[in-house]
Amino acid sequence: MPTKSKLYRKEMIYGYLFLAPPVIGMLLFTMYPMLYSIYGSFTDWDGLGQMNFIGLDNYKDLFTDELFHKAMFNTFFMMIGIPIGLVLALLLAMGLNRGIPGTTAFRVIYYVPVISSLAAISILWQWAYNGDYGLVNQFLDLFGIKGPNWLANKHTVKPAIMIMAIWKGLGYSMLLYLAALQSVSRSYYEAAELDGANGFQTFRAITWPMVKPVTFFIVVTSIIGGSQIFTEINIMTSTGGPEYSSASAVFYMWQKAFGNFQLGYSSAMAVLLALFIFIVTLVQFKFNEKSSGDLD
Amino acid sequence: MVLSSKKWSTANIIIFILLCIGAVFMIAPLLWMVTTSFKTKMEVFALPPVWIPEEWLTAKYSEIWTAGPLLSGIKNSVIVAVSVTLIGTFTSSLAAFALAKLQVPHKNKIFLMLLSSIMIPYPAVMIPQFIMFSNIGWNDTLLPLIVPGLFGNVFMIFFLRQYLTSVPNAIIEAAKIDGSSYFGIYAKIVFPLIKPAVAAQLILWFMGVWNDYLAPTIYLTSEENYTLQLVIGNFNAMYAIQTDYPLIMAASVISLLPMLIVFLVFQKQIIESVAISAVKG
C-alpha cells in the first residue's frame, strides 16, 4: 500500500519537527558548552586574548591550590547535614502517617520553606544568625546559652549554613517519605501486630525496606544539589566567610571565572564538578537496576 | 502499630505535641521576618528582644518601592518566568507527545540522549554559555535567562511522556483515520487529556525560574534589569550597612508572597506531583 508508507513518512516528519526544539536546545545550551568547558580547561582562556593550549596545567594548579582545597572541603563538610535531615524527615513522615488530625496542615507548614526563594531565606537567616540581636541567639538565651556570632566565626559558619539547609529542605524529604509510607499496605502492619512485633522490629522489617529506594533517591539528589551550593554562600557570606571558611566549590569557581576572568582555570573546576555528578548519577542508576530487580 | 481506633492514644498525643513543636521551628523564622518588617529600628535592636512590635508600622512597605528597583525586579521576574514556562511547556508537551504516541525512528535513543543531558549541572556549562551570549551582545539583558528555557525542559518531557502512556493509542489512531493533522491531534485530543499533569509541572517549573539566583547574578549588571531575587539580594547588601533590617525584611516578605500564594492555592496539586516524582524517579 503506497498510502501507508506516505502516512508513515508524514508521521516521521512531524515527529522530528516536534522533537526538534528540545534536541536543538540540548545541543546548543548543554552539549556544546559542556564540550567547550572541557576544551577550555586545557587552555589559558581569559575571555579576551587568544586561547593557548597548556595541557594539564590547570588541573595541576588545582592540585596545589589551597583555596580550592578549602572550598572542596567546605562543600563536602556541609553535606554532613544530609543524613541529619534524612533522619528528621523520616521521623516526621512516620509521625504524619498515623492518621493524627491536622496532618494536612502540618504538611503545608513544613513545606513552606521549600517553596520560598532561597535568596529571601538566606537573607532572613543571615539576620537570624546575628550575634547580638538574631533570633537564634535570642532563643538560645532563653536557656542561658550565649551563642556565637555565627557567620563571623570560622568554626560556626559551616554548621550555621548546614542547619539552614536542613530547615529549608526538610519538608521536601518528608513529603517523599510520606508518599513512600502511604504506599505500604496497612495489612503488613496489622500482620506484624498480630505476630506481636514491637515498634522497632516493625520498623526494621517493614518500614525501612519500603523506604530504602526513596532514601537513596534523596541522598543522591541531595549530594548533587549540595555539590552545587552557591546562593546561600553568596548572600550570607559574600566574601566566602572568615578565612574563606564557607566558600563552596561553585562559589570559588564563580569568583575565579567572573571576578578574575580565569576562565580556563574555572573550566577545569567545572569539568571536575560534572565528572563528580556523573559518577554519583551512575551509582544511582546501577542501584536502581538492582533494586527494581529485587521487587520483582 | 497504626490503627485508626486509637486516634488519641498516649503515643499519638505525644507525637502530635512533637509535630507542633516542629511546626513552630519551621514557621517561627518566617513569622519573625514578618514582625521585624513592622518594627521600629529601636525595637529591632532592643534587649531583651521585642517579639511583637508595639505599633505595627507599615511605613517600610511604602518605602521599599523607592529604596530600590523592586517594581522593575518583579516585572523582570514575571517576564522571564512567564515566557519561559508558557512557551517551554508548549515545546515540552509537543515533544512528549511525539515520544509517547508517534512512530518516529530512533525516538528511544533521542529520549535517552535528552535524559542524559540532565546529568550535566548548570555550573559546568555556565562559562561557555556566558561567553556565547556575550558574543551576540545579550549581556545585561533578560534573553540569556529566557531563550534556553523556550526549547523545553527535559524533566517536564519525562513526566508528560510517562503520563501519556496511560492514554490509549486507539484514540489517537482514530483521529488519524479521521484525517486530523498531527498538530490537530495534539491540540484537540492530547493536550486536554494531559492538562492536569501539565499544570502541576508548569507550577513547579515557574517556581524554579522565579527563585533562580545564580544565572541572573552572572548576566545582569544594571539595576533596572535585575530580577526580583537579585533586587532583594542587593537590598540586603546595601541596607545591612545602615542596619535598616525592617526595610530588608519588608522587601523579602514581598518577594516571598507571590510563591506563597501560588503554593497555598495549589498546595494539593503541588504536593501530589512532587510525591509522584519521587515514586517514579
UniProtKB/TrEMBL annotation, chain A:
Annotated GO CC locations: plasma membrane
Q: Which residues cross the membrane?
A: 12-35, 76-96, 108-128, 160-180, 214-231, 263-283
Primary place of residence?
membrane
Note one Pfam family from the annotation.
BPD_transp_1
Q: Does the keyword Membrane apply?
A: yes
InterPro entries linked: ABC_transporter_permease, MetI-like, MetI-like_sf
GO biological process entries: transmembrane transport
Q: Which residues form the ABC transmembrane type-1 domain?
A: 67-284
Q: Does the keyword Membrane apply?
A: yes
Which keywords does this chain's UniProt record carry?
A: Cell membrane, Membrane, Sugar transport, Transmembrane, Transmembrane helix, Transport
Q: Where in the cell is it found?
A: Cell membrane
Membrane topology field:
Multi-pass membrane protein
Q: Which family does it belong to?
A: Belongs to the binding-protein-dependent transport system permease family.
PANTHER family per UniProt = ABC TRANSPORTER PERMEASE PROTEIN (PTHR30193), INNER MEMBRANE ABC TRANSPORTER PERMEASE PROTEIN YCJO (PTHR30193:SF37)
Q: What is this protein called?
A: Multiple sugar transport system permease protein
TrEMBL record, chain B:
A Pfam family reported for this protein in Swiss-Prot or TrEMBL: BPD_transp_1
Provide this UniProt record's keywords sorted from A to Z. Cell membrane, Membrane, Sugar transport, Transmembrane, Transmembrane helix, Transport
Domain ABC transmembrane type-1: from-to ranges: 74-266
Cellular compartments annotated: Cell membrane
Tell me which InterPro entries the record gives: MetI-like (IPR000515), MetI-like_sf (IPR035906)
- Entry keyword Transport: yes
Annotated TM spans: 12-34, 78-99, 111-133, 145-164, 185-207, 245-266
Gene3D superfamilies referenced in this protein's UniProt entry, alphabetically: MetI-like
Q: Name a GO CC annotation attached to this entry.
A: plasma membrane
Tell me the membrane topology, using the record's own terms.
Multi-pass membrane protein
Q: Does the keyword DNA-binding apply?
A: no
Q: What is its main location?
A: membrane
GO biological process per UniProt: transmembrane transport
Q: Which family does it belong to?
A: Belongs to the binding-protein-dependent transport system permease family.
State the name under which the record lists this protein: Multiple sugar transport system permease protein
Q: What is the lineage of its organism?
A: Bacteria, Bacillati, Bacillota, Bacilli, Bacillales
